């Protein structure tokens, strides 16, 4: 048995798909659909190049940083920082 879909129904489905794709791509909500609790985008104002022997806690102490350090470096893995890696030491999250 063949299923027949009208052009109006197909257009409606395609438009809904387009809105969902845009919503996910932009990380915004459209009519309550989308990512809930999207994290703020960090804006770095000053960077530091990791040197031999550096650790996250050592860098935080050196520059008197708080837990905000992790907000402006959201993808940091303190177990795998490497020499020459750029870390944000001053910035904002918007």
TrEMBL record:
Domain LysM: residue ranges: 46-89
SUPFAM superfamilies in alphabetical order: LysM domain
Domain of life according to the entry: Eukaryota
Stored PROSITE patterns: LYSM
GO terms assigned for molecular function: chitin binding
Signal peptide (residue range): 1-27
Keywords: Chitin-binding, Signal, Virulence
Gene3D superfamilies attached to this UniProt entry: LysM domain
Name of the molecule in the record: LysM domain-containing protein
Species this protein is from: Pyrus ussuriensis x Pyrus communis
């Amino acid at each position: 048995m063949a299923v027949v879909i009208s052009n109006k129904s197909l257009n409606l489905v395609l438009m809904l798909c387009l809105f969902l794709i845009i919503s996910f791509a932009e990380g915004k909500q459209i009519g309550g659909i989308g990512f809930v609790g999207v994290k703020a985008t960090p804006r770095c104002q000053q960077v530091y190049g990791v040197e031999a022997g550096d650790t996250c806690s050592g860098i935080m102490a050196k520059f008197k940083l708080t837990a905000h350090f992790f907000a402006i470096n959201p993808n940091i893995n303190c177990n795998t920082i490497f020499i020459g890696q750029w870390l944000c030491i001053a910035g904002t999250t918007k």
